[in-house]
Write a structure and sequence with these properties.
Blueprint (H helix, E strand, L loop, with lengths): L1 E2 L11 E6 L4 E4 L9 E7 L2 E2 L1 E3 L6 E8 L7 E12 L2 E2 L3 E7 L2 E2 L4 E3 L7 E8 L6 E8 L7 E4 L7 E11 L4 E6 L1 H7 L3 E2 L2 E9 L5 E10 L6 E6 L15 E10 L6 E11 L4 E11 L4 E4 L2 E2 L12 E2 L2 E3 L8 E9 L7 E2 L18 E9 L4 E5 L38 E7 L4 E8 L2 E2 L2 E2 L3 E6 L4 E3 L18 E4 L4 E4 L6 E8 L10 E8 L6 E7 L5 E6 L5 E7 L10 E9 L3 E6 L2 E2 L4 E8 L9 E8 L2 E4 L9 E3 L5 E7 L5 E9 L11 E2 L3 E5 L1
Parallel strand pairs: 18-24, 40-46, 48-56
Antiparallel strand pairs: 1-16, 2-7, 3-4, 4-5, 4-16, 6-15, 7-14, 8-13, 8-16, 9-15, 10-11, 10-12, 10-14, 17-19, 19-22, 20-21, 20-23, 23-24, 25-28, 26-27, 29-30, 29-31, 31-32, 33-34, 34-37, 35-36, 37-38, 39-41, 41-44, 42-43, 42-45, 45-46, 47-49, 49-53, 50-51, 50-52, 50-54, 54-55, 54-56
Length: 685
């Protein structure tokens, strides 16, 4: 701290003059503007510059600097100043210095009529805990004069070029830390994107110099810090070197700049004396890795040995600032039900060519999406069972017919035709094409073409017979029956379900060893796709696990012969799946006027425009929407990854308040029925 210098030409609180045992009147002069002096202007009985003795003790006049009550824990460690005292006449005088009742060095004698004053720069180290310093002149009674006369009268005595070194051992106080980041840290929540922090603090002594936010990765590594520098507001020319209060509102922490993981969150305040207070707000887990909004898929529904199958990554989203998304692949071999999958060595490309060892198995592809913060992995649905290579019968029913001709059995002589065929031994789907001409038993043939394409059931031209039978006792008039339930409702968490049934011929005899295709058509979709296969037992019964999916129609279909275009028998189950939604709240205990932050996610696939979410509170015996005046509305729309964040401020109510999130059904692009989150209790006191 500096006083009475060119940069601070003012008299601050804490500077005063004093008199003792004298009839003199002493006041502080305004000499700061004249040579930087801060001195006594002494007057006694109308005589300027006179210090009058009183009795045998003489008279004392001086200047005192004392720490004011507004800085209760500040002490003076040392002081440096240029001291000036005017020459004296009439009697001898002494110039002295003291603090907290202790005399300090540099006592000087001012001799009567010597014409010599006092001027020099001195430094003093004050007693521990000192809160004042003073310099004074003392008029003696040596020459029996009643007055010591000083000239000039403003230097009885005077100080200039003063520098104080202050000490403060009391740390600052953090009075509040609020906002989404503070709430998330308190509840150890998972966050993404930008999280704001507001805080306030105070230091009534030296004042606040800086603040620091520190996020330390719990898994190890370098901490991430942000410093709030208040030094530009620190003048160092008063008892509080810096402002005694500071507040920061809405500092945005971009969590995408952090690697995904768990971080301890600390907030620290430092005052001008170097004292620091640190509060641990809690911990957060950052989650800015890509989020899947549409599952990856394979480019073919029927897989054959030797025929490459490609993949599509689906749709992914990531917070702004998380960088671009890259993809890596791992193909896996699974059993015929799409379970017990193991990774295939050297199969890390976007496409894969099935080999002979895959026959009778299903495949799936694991796609890993990576941005600058982390990675997420999502699997495709299991494929259809892999069929043997072209021309191989494999383990199941063989291929459909191929060839061309004008009769039912094709030409037996004539020009040789050319063509190609492929089949799936597990689903008995086949395709064939050819062209040529010949003569058959019924006469001369004519040129023709023909094809039968997979489970789509599309055919044109002619085929060479019905193909191989699908099961023992295969019948085009087969009957396929399922269990009693035709409509089922499932929660999002229990979407996987089993379908059981029986396949019989028209005579009632079981069809054993037949392969059935399980197809799914999502709500609002016009296309079906094969999601699993089942094989009938000796008594014609079967059970199949249907992979998880949205609200949809699941069809079990039977094709009697491998060359048949259409299914001979079908049975359907309609599945309604409730939307899945998660809700978290922080903090869960607040004051009657406190604020909470509700965060959550609707599980996908979520449409690009987001999903609507209703936020409800149980109040006076019923569920009611959060009042619109407290938020942007009780119904909010998520982002494309299904996330939402809402702030809610209590308005004086106290007690236990359950909250929950509701996803309305019937939303465009969201193939789920109405779904509810678990309830979260908040207590307001």
């Amino acid at each position: 701290m500096r006083q009475c210098s060119a940069s601070a030409p003012s008299i601050a609180p804490g500077w005063s003059v004093f008199t003792g045992s004298t009839q003199a009147v002493a006041v502080l002069s305004d000499g700061c503007g004249s040579g930087g002096l801060l001195g006594d202007l002494v007057e006694s009985n109308g005589q300027s510059g006179a210090v009058t003795e009183e009795g045998s003790n003489g008279g004392v006049v001086g200047i005192q600097v004392a720490v004011p009550a507004s800085a209760p824990d500040v002490t003076i460690r040392s002081l440096t100043a240029k001291v000036t005292a005017a020459p004296v006449s009439g009697d001898d005088a002494y110039l002295g210095f003291d603090s907290e009742g202790q005399e300090l060095p540099c006592l000087a004698l001012l001799q009567d009529s010597s014409g010599v004053g006092y001027q020099r720069t001195d430094s003093w180290t004050l007693p521990q805990g000192a809160r004042y310093f003073q310099t004074s002149v003392y008029c003696t009674t040596d020459h029996s004069h009643t007055t010591c006369d000083f000239s000039p009268a403003s230097q009885v005595p005077a100080l200039s070029e003063i520098t104080l070194t202050l000490q403060d051992n009391t740390p600052p106080t953090i009075s509040s830390a609020t906002g989404p980041l503070a709430s998330a840290a308190t509840s150890n929540a998972t966050v993404s994107g930008t999280q704001e922090l507001s805080f306030a603090g105070s230091d009534t002594d030296s004042g606040l110099l800086s603040a620091k936010l520190t996020l330390t990765p719990q898994a190890g590594g370098a901490a991430v810090t942000h410093t709030f520098d208040f030094s530009g507001e620190c003048a160092y020319d008063s008892w509080n070197a810096c402002p005694i209060k500071q507040a920061v509102s809405g500092y945005p922490l971009d969590s995408t700049t952090l690697k995904d993981g768990t971080y301890t969150v600390d907030l620290a305040l430092t005052d001008a004396a170097g004292n620091t207070t640190t509060n641990t707000l809690g911990s957060i887990t950052t989650r800015n890795a890509p989020t899947n909004t549409a599952l990856p898929t394979m480019t073919a529904s029927e897989l054959v040995v030797g025929v490459p199958v490609g993949s599509l990554p689906g749709s992914w989203s990531a917070p702004s600032g998380a960088g671009s998304i890259s993809y890596s692949y791992q193909w896996q071999d699974c059993d015929s039900h799409g379970e017990h999958c193991t990774s295939i060595g050297d199969a890390q490309g976007a496409s894969y060519t099935p080999v002979a060892s895959d026959v009778g198995h299903t495949l799936r592809m694991l796609l890993t999406a990576t941005d600058s913060d982390g990675s997420s992995t999502q699997a495709t649905a299991p494929s259809a069972v892999v069929a043997p290579a072209q021309g191989s019968l494999g383990a199941g029913p063989g291929p459909g017919g191929s060839g061309s001709g004008s009769g039912n059995s094709g030409g037996s002589s004539g020009a040789t035709g050319t063509g190609s065929s492929s089949n799936n031994s597990a689903s008995n789907n086949a395709s064939s094409s050819g062209d040529g001409s010949g003569s058959g038993a019924s006469g001369a043939g004519s040129p023709g073409t023909g094809s039968t394409v997979g489970s789509a059931g599309v055919s044109a031209g002619a085929s060479n017979g019905p193909g191989l039978p699908n099961g023992v006792g295969a019948s085009e008039s087969a009957q396929l029956t399922l269990g009693d339930q035709r409509v089922i409702s499932r929660s999002f968490a229990r979407r996987v379900f089993k379908v059981s049934g029986r396949l019989r011929a028209a005579t009632g005899e079981p069809i054993a060893g037949a392969t059935l295709a399980i197809l799914a058509q999502a709500q609002e979709s016009t296309a079906s796709r094969v999601v699993a296969h089942a094989r009938t037992r000796a008594n014609g019964t079967f059970t199949v696990k249907v992979p998880a999916g949205p609200s949809r129609t699941v069809t079990v279909a039977y094709r009697a012969f491998s060359a048949n275009a259409a299914y001979a028998a079908q049975a359907r189950v309609k599945e309604s799946v409730a939307a899945g939604v998660r809700l978290s709240i922080a903090p869960v205990q607040v004051s009657a006027a406190g604020e909470i932050v509700l965060t959550g996610q609707v599980f996908g696939p979520v449409p690009a425009q987001g999903a609507l979410v209703e936020l409800l509170v149980h109040y006076k015996g019923r569920w009611v929407p959060i009042p619109a005046s407290h938020t942007e509305g009780a119904t909010r729309r998520t982002d494309a990854s299904g996330h939402f964040v809402v702030a809610y401020k209590f308005q004086g109510a106290t007690g236990r308040f359950p909250f929950r999130a509701v996803v309305p059904g019937g939303q465009a692009g969201l193939p789920y029925t109405r779904g509810y989150s678990d309830t979260v209790d908040v207590r307001a006191t």
